[in-house]
Design a protein that fits this description.
Strand order of the largest sheet: 1-2-3
Mean pLDDT: 91
Largest sheet: 3 strands, antiparallel
Strand content: 15-25%
Order of helices and strands: EEEH
Number of helices: 1
Radius of gyration: 13 Å
Number of strands: 3
Structural class: alpha+beta
């Protein structure tokens, strides 16, 4: 599974956590919790990639940043 960067933040306007994937244009999801937003965006990432493959579009490679816990 590809590991694309995900940015999660609280949106006061939407009253929800927003998860965006900068490397995949238009790929985003929301959730009432941080964990829900992350789970939702994981589904959207897979759908984004499947759609790009069906349309024969280029799928950006993950930036490969090293993350520390």
């Amino acid at each position: 599974m590809a590991r694309h960067e995900v940015i999660i933040y609280w949106s006061e306007e939407d009253k929800a956590f927003i998860a965006e994937v900068p490397e995949l244009p238009g790929c985003a999801a929301d959730g009432s919790t941080y964990q829900e937003a992350l789970a939702n965006v994981e589904v959207v990432i897979q759908e984004w990639i499947e759609t790009a493959k069906e349309l024969d579009r280029t799928i950006p490679q993950p930036k490969g940043r090293l993350m520390f816990a």
